Amino acid sequence: MKNLITGGAGFIGSHLAEELLRRDEDVVVIDNLSTGSIRNIKHLLRDRRFSFHKGTIMNEKLMKRLIRNCDMVYHMAAAVGVKYIIDNPLESIHTNVKGTETVLNLASSFGRKKVLVASTSEIYGKDRPGKRIFKEDDDRVLGPTTISRWSYSCAKAMDEFLSLAYWREKRLPVIIVRFFNTVGPRQSGMYGMVVPRFVKDALLNRPITIYGDGRQTRSFTYISDAVSAITGLARTPKAVGEIFNIGNPHTISIQALAEKVKKLTGSRSPIVYIPYDKAYKKGFEDMRHRAPDITKINKFIGFRPEVDLDEMLVNIVEYFKE
Q: CA geometry: angle at 78 spanning 113 and 305, to 5°?
């Protein structure tokens, strides 16, 4: 089995590559290293079953060659992270929509290669009264187009529409997965990801900065659980044409998360709060609560997350210490 991973030098992509190699499968990675890092895959470069191509998924000539020669495409390449999306709105929209269209079109042209498309819990959008847990067929509620944060949700929704259109009209076998705050070693806090940001600041005894009042809640999924879900779905024929949440339904407030990280690291860091308008841009909107309903993925492949938050944080702290 020869697998192509777009964005394979990124956080999730590099762990997925490791797992596929562990299963004795061939892995080809393409990444432009805009948010990924060669450090994430450096240890894989010695493996004869692994190859890396530095380039963009918008390079159609290169993508034609890579997709023609693969059996399965894991489309993980995307502009990610709230801060990155807000700072680079045009590039983010172009990468997320045009890049996915390129992958789907070429996969369809070369014998209908199976494609697993990475989407996001941002799809669900804004809060709604009494709603904390989201399932795949829930309605989407978004803010105005003047708030650039919602462009990411819209772009990834277009990725999903495109994927399902290719399935329905061209019978291209696609599987869509929506990630809920996947965390683990190699994740960078540079683009707004909260866990690596808190851990790094705590270890350096710098202020642990919470955006907003800290009472917003989130759920976190460990990378090994996410990869297990991805590979399980890819091997399940009945998953084709479907959308799945990948996440952990257990939630914690951001304030409690900061306190947990501080205690675990023995940090002297103060916990400070800054308003969203100062952290991002005026008019920024956030959702108070968002956790996944994982009934569907459990029904299809028996998925249940195995790593709890305490174990996740211990592993991430050890990674940053090293």
A: 80
Give the C-alpha separation, 276 to 86, whole Å.
13
Give me the catalytic one of 152, 191, 222, 280.
Answer: 152
Residue 283 has pLDDT above 80, yes or no: no
Q: Is the pLDDT of residue 84 over 90?
A: no
Query: Which whole-number Å values give the CA distances from 192 to 54, 197, 203, in the listed order?
Result: 24, 7, 18
Contact 306, 243 (CB under 8 A): no
Q: Rounded mean pLDDT of 207-219?
A: 94
Superfamily for 2-184+220-249+292-306? NAD(P)-binding Rossmann-like Domain (3.40.50.720)
Q: Where are the domains of the chain?
A: 2-184+220-249+292-306
Residue type, 1: M
Residue 76 DSSP SS3: coil
Q: Which two tokens stand for residue 214?
A: 């800290």
* Residue 152 known to be catalytic: yes
